[in-house]
Amino acid sequence: MLNERNPIPVVEAIKQVTKYCKKGETEYIELTEARSRVLAEDLIADHDVPSFDRSPYDGYALRSEDTTEVMKNTPKILSVVGHIGAGSVYHKKLEKNQAVRIMTGAPIPDGADAIIMLEDTTTFEESGKSFVSIRKQLQHQQNISFKGEDVKNGTALVNKGTVINPGIIALLATFGYAQVPVAKKPVIGVIATGSELLEIDQPLEPGKIRNSNAYMMIGQLQRAGAIPQYYGALTDNLEESLEKISEVMKEVDFLITTGGVSVGDFDLLPEIYQELGADVLFNKVAMRPGSVTTVAAVNDTLLFGLSGNPSACYVGFELFTRPIIDSFLAKETIGIQQEQATLAVDFSKVNPFDRFIRGRYEFKNGQLVTEPAGKDKSNMVHSLAMANCLIQLPGGTEGYKQGDKVTIHLLGE
Ligand SMILES: Nc1nc2c(c(=O)[nH]1)N[C@H]1C(S)=C(S)[C@@H](COP(=O)(O)OP(=O)(O)OC[C@H]3O[C@@H](n4cnc5c(N)ncnc54)[C@H](O)[C@@H]3O)O[C@H]1N2
Ligand code: MOO
Q1: Which CATH number does 338-410 carry?
Q2: Measured from the CB, is residue 258 less than 6 Å from ligand 2?
Q3: Which residues does the UniProt record annotate as the domain MoaB/Mog (predicted)?
Q4: Helix (H, G, I), strand (E, B) or coil at 189
């Protein structure tokens, strides 16, 4: 059966997976925990910001009409009748030829219609009273931060599906959101397969390797905003593996396995899918690395059978698992950010399949340029550590030349 695998194009594979998108529930969390979470409701301003007219400067609040006679060398003297800092209110009404000393952020006193900066005044005392000499003419409403000039009551604040960043946190705090409605994170099971695997704290033995994929996927899941649930590594035993996978599926929203999806004698996943009665969406994708990526569904639970080769596993996750997580979180944009970049070196390998090369991008002379991050074989891990993007090279060409425009997928931190 496995030798009959028919590769499907990458876009078709993504389409197949996204048919199974399910949206998660909403939960309320503390604002201090909200960074990087996805907002689950449209938020509307329930008051103006600022909620009162306020001073943008330290200076004096006054009536602009009292300054009409100010000339270059003839200042106007006003009597200082009060002193307010941010957080206090001047409760009387400002009368003709009066001024109130005011600090940045304090509310404009009744009767005042302009603020003069402290630097344009001189304060002095005479007979126990305070006065201010005004050296500048002011216009009606000059130097005032108006009620609602930042955000008007009733306007949209942030749309659902937005990833919350520190700027958005400032806005939510301004509107008193101590708790924030966010999309619940999907819980995604991680299982590694292969009798060759050692855990990371075990010493190397002949023929064995340390299980790096599970930890890599835990990192990828965290970066994508999901909760990884690690269930360890399975040895190549069909009954035990089937039992474990059936158990785990009941506890998670999706399950990712790594390894065991190819045509080797110990590649058990295809048989396990069969035993589970899973609907196999595809078991070969026209891409390198990760051509053996298999995705199956049992009812509405997706099983991602990612390749065992580290770089193939990584690419399979970013292309197929990531969009499902984004949809579950009801993110405004699905999938990782893509940009156009210029290839900085030749890439001569010919391939009928699309390639996703571990790459590095940077800005050079105002242009986004990219090149491979290291050796390109899918069983290699070092170039993964060096990569900050995947360079997409569509198949069916005679390789690529320096200067060619290519699509890159930005990986993030
Ligand atoms: N006759 C064929 N052989 C292979 C084919 C093929 O088409 N015909 N495809 C090759 C390609 S391409 C890939 S990719 C791999 C995929 O194999 P599996 O996904 O079944 O993975 P495994 O065989 O279990 O492992 C492959 C490789 O990766 C190492 N590995 C596995 N798990 C981990 C882990 N958790 N951490 C680190 N490394 C891991 C494993 O030891 C193997 O070296 O098949 C090719 N063969
Ligand atoms: O599917 Mo394999 O990842 O091409 O190396």
Answers
A1: 2.40.340.10
A2: no
A3: 189-327
A4: strand
Looking at the CA of residue 378, tell me the nearest atom of ligand 2: 5
Dist CA 225 CA 188 (whole Å): 11
Tell me the per-residue pLDDT of 46-104, one tens digit each, with 9 for 90 and over. 999 999 999 999 999 999 999 999 987 899 999 999 999 999 999 999 999 999 999 99
265-268 contacts: CB < 8 A, separation 24 or more? 266/194, 266/195, 266/236, 268/193, 268/236, 268/238, 268/241
- Cα of 376 vs centre of ligand 1, distance in Å, is 15
Q: Would you list the domain boundaries of the chain?
A: 2-25+184-328, 27-49+158-183, 59-134, 338-410
| Among the bound ligands, the one closest to the CA of 258 | 1
What is the value of ipTM here, to two decimals?
0.96
CATH classification for the domain delimited by 59-134, as one of 3.30.300.210, 3.40.30.10, 2.60.120.200, 2.170.190.11 = 2.170.190.11
Q: How far is CA 128 from CA 4, 75, 155, in A?
A: 100, 21, 50
- The answer to whether 408 and 390 have CB atoms below 8 angstroms apart is yes
- Residue 312 Cβ inside 6 Å of ligand 2? The answer reads yes
Is there a common fold for 27-49+158-183 and 59-134?
no
By three-state DSSP, how is residue 144 classified? coil
For 274-323, how does the pLDDT look when each residue is reduced to its tens digit (9 = 90+)? Answer: 999 999 999 999 999 999 999 999 988 999 999 999 999 999 999 999 99
236 CA distance to ligand 1 middle (Å): 13
Q: What is the CA radius of gyration of the chain?
A: 32
102 bridge partner residues: 59, 84
**Which is nearest to 330 in space by CA: 34, 32, 21?**
21
Buried b (16+ CB within 10 A) or exposed e, 26-37: eeeeeeeebeeb
Domain 2-25+184-328, second-level architecture: 3-Layer(aba) Sandwich (3.40)
Q: How far away, in angstroms, is 373 Cα from ligand 2 center?
A: 17
Ligand 2 pocket residue status of 292, Cβ below 6 Å: yes
| Kind of pairing between the strands at 367-372 and 338-343 | parallel
What number does CATH give the domain 27-49+158-183?
Answer: 3.90.105.10
